[in-house]
Amino acid sequence: MKKCSVFLMLFTMILVFAATSQSSSALSEAEEEIALPDVSTVISGGAPKVGKSAIPDFSEIFPSAETAEVVPRLPEPGKAEGTSSEAVILNQRAEKKLYVEGKAGLGLPAFFIGDFSIYRQTGKNPFRINFGHESANRYVWHSFSSGYFDRNTYLEAEKMFSTDKTKWVLSGKYNSVADGLQSKCDNMSDITKHELEATVDFLVNFTKNISLTVFTDGAWYNRYGNIVGSPDLQDFEESLSVFSLNPRIGFSLDLGQVHLSFDADYQLEYDIGNSLYTRDANRFDFGLDFGFKNDFMDVFADVDGVLGNRIGDNAVLVPFDVGADFHFKTSLSSRDMKVSVIGGMDSSLQKISSLEKEYKFSAMNEISTETSDWFGKTHVYFPIKDIVSISFDGEFRKTAFGNGTLFPLYEETYFSNGQYIFISNDITQFNTDLSVQAKWGIISLVAFWNAKWVDVLPTKNPHEIGFSFNVQDKKSRVIYDMTFAVPLGKGVDAIPVWDFELSFKASNAVRLAISGADILKLMMAKSRVYAGEYVKRSGTVAALVKFFL
Question: Does the pTM exceed 0.85?
Fold first, then answer.
């Protein structure tokens, strides 16, 4: 309750500041009006979301809210045409202008979200600071004391410095995630995961065609359980502390239609807590990229050499890929038809933090091993007239050189002290995504079918069929979003996933919303299985306030 009170007090202060700022403005409402973007989505975690891959890139029909700028981009200093005093004043305002946006909300069962950002997006030295917290207790109608809860708190900051030829980007992130073990473990009540990350990204343009990039990423990941009593736990089950480092350097040459680049990459992951069966991974990657483009196609190819102590029974790996993007006019639409194909062999070393966050209630017992796949992918975008389009994505993957995919096996045999153990297994995947998108005036509709025909990774459904629906008037006074998806396949909970959000424009700076996620499960008072012994949030209804100042 204390956290909720702090967020509500902060939110109230921001609204008071917004009202004061609006009343003191010298501009009329018509001159000042800013359309508040609908940028929020309640993160419920309790429904098997169809996710980004389920719904095609809607920006191919109309600009998306994610890519559209929330405020008009003003000219940068020194780039405004002319030398009038008005241009100088405009640039000064652009350099100094700060923006605040975010959302806050409460809901059932015992749901809270607060997400705030402050940033400057114009000028030579923009920055952004983001803070967010989300928590949910009592999935469906489970008791508060039964361990059905999750929490996610994050803080991010980014600062950019630039000159005519150089750019520095400094950023830092902190993330804390906690999941209750739902009374499935006698030794621990919940698992907490912390990650602290810092990056430095430097770019220098020696000439118009030649540039150098230097990037360094360092992170610390810590997982630990809230232990009850004096249990007999293995080291990796009780806690984990891992340090990772990833410096890269790249050199690129752009000759108009031809692009060449070379990069060198080093990846280190080290068990500083001495909890794992293996202590470290060292990986070196040297790559050469080539690209050619003209008015209707973009052809590209790259080849790498990989060395390391966790790349399997191989002295060296040689990942490569060759592909092409085509776009051309048809008689059916003014929009271009697009076709992309790419194939080859890719290889990567996933971080422990990424794996354990992707798959909840799981624990790695050793440093990650390389995952290598033969692959082929295609994408087709076919527009019909100016309101309808069809998209198709197909992907084939098969394990290469015995470097299998890492994932937890959510079976009783691999369950120990509330956590499932990872395995590396050779798999074959053939996945397809088909969608039809249409837009009539203020109405947008997407119908989709996502299918996984061979091996299906944990927490994924073999098939999902559904549609998404959006209605938004021209001034964004009322916006309604809805997604309805039916999971299908052997052993799958076939109760449809129904998500929606209805929002109203209360003022130029404030928007009110009612949001629901997997609400059929909430109304039925039944849980939706996540994997193995565990369930996920099975429904959330929330009232939200979104603001832009």
Answer: no
